[in-house]
TrEMBL record:
Keywords assigned: Cell membrane, Electron transport, Heme, Iron, Membrane, Metal-binding, Oxidoreductase, Transmembrane, Transmembrane helix, Transport
Occurrences of domain Cytochrome b561 bacterial/Ni-hydrogenase (ranges): 19-196
Entry's family note: Belongs to the formate dehydrogenase gamma subunit family.
PANTHER family: FORMATE DEHYDROGENASE, NITRATE-INDUCIBLE, CYTOCHROME B556 FDN SUBUNIT, FORMATE DEHYDROGENASE, NITRATE-INDUCIBLE, CYTOCHROME B556(FDN) SUBUNIT
Organism: Methylopila musalis
Membrane topology: Multi-pass membrane protein
One Pfam family from the record: Ni_hydr_CYTB
Localization annotation: Cell membrane
Top-rank taxon, per record: Bacteria
EC assignment: 1.17.1.9
GO function terms (MF aspect): formate dehydrogenase (NAD+) activity
UniProt KW Iron keyword: yes
Keyword Cell membrane: yes
Protein name as annotated: Formate dehydrogenase subunit gamma
Length: 221
């Protein structure tokens, strides 16, 4: 006996949830572009084997001149991001629980995890780690910006600042690599920062408390 299977076209309705305004996205991508340029120009000045990277900036002297100014733009741009997002990155008890169940996070078994607000503990650590390192980079960078601040401190303090600047830069680069990897690894996240929205499924799966608050917001209006 043949069984007939009825084939109907499936209508999949996708709910979109707004995650970032256009201005937040522009703010983020200006910061990201500055970070990439700073990494390239910084590495070019860091070690002779990477000096070839100065070609990207029009030679050694230009690289030396541009690098600190790009840093100033990055700090200004990140400061605006900081003001926008610091409250949402405050640590709470669910973050500690989420961290203690990091095995479930890696396995993608999110049903055992606490419901999360807009950001998870990993994102919060990236946020605070980047914020702290940028303060260190700015302070140590100003000390070694000879064009404007030459002779303000002793040579030993200058050397210490150069070492601190390099170590903080390595830390920041590693953190941002984790940030980019996590954004790509959690499918559907990059479009939050490119298109400004995520699917309802993404929000339900990864940031349920945030989704509930968004739904409540629309109900209240
Ligand atoms: C260069 C490539 C980068 C990519 C592909 C990228 C991607 C993303 C994505 C997809 C999000 C949204 C995450 C979500 O809503 O759950 C995000 C958020 C964010 N990104 Fe980036 N990003 C990059 C660089 C940077 C840099 C260099 C910084 C800072 C120096 C930065 C700081 C932030 C901040 C502060 C947020 C908001 C999340 C939070 O406050 O915890 N990003 N990024």
């Amino acid at each position: 006996m043949a069984i007939e299977i009825e084939r109907r076209p499936m209508i999949v309705e996708r709910t979109e949830v707004k995650r970032y305004s256009a201005s937040a996205r522009v703010n983020h991508w200006i910061t990201a572009i500055c970070f990439v340029l700073l990494t390239l120009s910084g590495l070019a000045l860091f070690h002779p084997s990477l000096f070839f990277l100065t070609d990207l900036f029009g030679g050694g002297a230009n690289t030396r001149a541009f690098h600190p100014w790009i840093g100033v733009v990055l700090v200004a741009s990140f400061s605006v991001l900081f003001v926008r997002f610091w409250k949402l990155n405050l640590w709470n008890r669910d973050d500690t629980r989420w961290m203690s169940q990091i095995g479930d996070v890696v396995k993608g078994e999110e049903e055992h995890l606490p419901e999360l607000g807009k950001y998870n503990a990993g994102q919060k650590m990236v946020f605070w780690g980047t914020s702290l390192l940028l303060v260190v980079l700015l302070a140590s960078g100003l000390v070694i910006w000879d064009q404007y601040f030459h002779g303000l401190v002793s040579i030993n303090v200058n050397r210490l600042a150069a070492l601190t600047h390099s170590l903080a830069a390595i830390g920041a680069i590693l953190i941002i690599i984790v940030h980019i990897y996590a954004g790509i690894w959690v499918k559907g996240t990059v479009r939050a920062m490119t298109q400004g929205q995520v699917t309802g499924g993404w929000a339900w799966r990864h940031h349920r408390k945030w989704l509930r608050s968004k739904v409540k917001e629309t109900d209240d209006h």
